[in-house]
Amino acid sequence: RFDSAASRGYTRRAPRSAPPAPPPRISMSALTRAFPPVSIRQAALSKRRTRSTPLASCRPRTHDSRLRIVCRVDHQSEAWSVSGDPAEPNKEPYYPNYYLADNAMKRVKKARLITAIKTPYLPDGRFDLHTYDTLVEQQIEAGVEGLIVGGTTGEGHLMSWDEHIMLIAHTSRRYGDKLLVIGNTGSNSTRESVHATQQGFAVGMDCALQINPYYGKTSKDGLIRHFEAVLREGPTIIYNVPGRTGQDIPDEVIVHFSKHPNFAGVKECTGNERIKTYTDQGITCWSGNDDEAHAARWAAGANGVISVTSNVAPKIFRKLMDEENEELSDKCQPLIKWMFAEPNPIGLNTILMMSGVVSPVFRLPYVPMTREQREECVKLVEEFGIENTVFDKLEVMEDSDFEFLF
Known about the structure:
By secondary structure, this protein is an alpha/beta fold. It has helices at residues 2-7, 28-34, 37-45, 47-50, 98-110, 129-141, 161-175, 190-202, 220-231, 242-245, 251-257, 272-279, 293-298, 314-322, 326-339, 346-354, 371-384, and strands at residues 56-58, 67-74, 79-86, 113-116, 146-149, 180-184, 207-211, 236-240, 263-268, 285-287, 304-307, 361-363, 403-405. It is globular, with a radius of gyration of 25 Å. The model is unreliable at 1-8 and 37-98 (pLDDT under 50).
């Protein structure tokens, strides 16, 4: 049979040589930690960032890894080069994202008005990205300099982490060249915070917003270790809101991190006296209280405000941050008081739904304001001036008009 096969033109195949040895395996998590993709993308694709990007040495944060990646940027050709070589485990502390901090930090610290953006939903429970884009574009048109994506106002605590990172990625991709994208990647778990923050920077966010561990509270030393872990990842705003977390971040913790290369500042919700204490020491602060934002900016030395009400009246808050105007600030107070009559974001969700700007879809446990409160809102907006808002109509709506998801 072999002779017959040979006569028909078939030949025996030569024996196979041994397959080449596979290249050493590097896990994606180790590579991301050692060389965050966002750093390459932001430095190599954005000319406004590349020229000020310093040379950087990026080392993995895990002590059991032997990978060292050294990055160099050529400022003439604006090109990156990467080389890798085995290295002994690193034992000294290091902060590998200097090149991020050098650029994004300057932009973050210049921001006066940052909006904690609302996340709208479709009736099937998915994000309404078309409406979300409309809301973002209204903010850009009004001169807002940055967005908090997936914050308390954006209901990040009701999202899966997949949804959370997807929304940060979408915002960065669509609008990252127009304003700052600040992802709320904090958690009461340090491990979860670090992982989410790595993912956030990998998909393009400029800065992270980090809450102190809530519910399962920790000691002062625990707070320091928690923030040390997340600050390694890139520019970070620390968020102090004891009314929600149940624990105040002591002054000495904020002062301790004020010299850290990745510390952008603090969003402070305990009042303007505290803000004044920080600003007198040269620490960048944003007020987290809309009703005190004007005084924080002009009397307490705050950099600006991270605002909820600017979802509704961004142009008015732009004026409040750009010029001292007590009369305009006083005019805003009744609407702000109504917005926070119930825990945020209930008021914001209700007024945007009443305006038709977003679909009347709530993710539980949030529900709309009562009918009496909605009627009061219509009167307040008439007095405030509907032309000062992002909408052109406001309806009371019936209770049956709202949908609820979980």
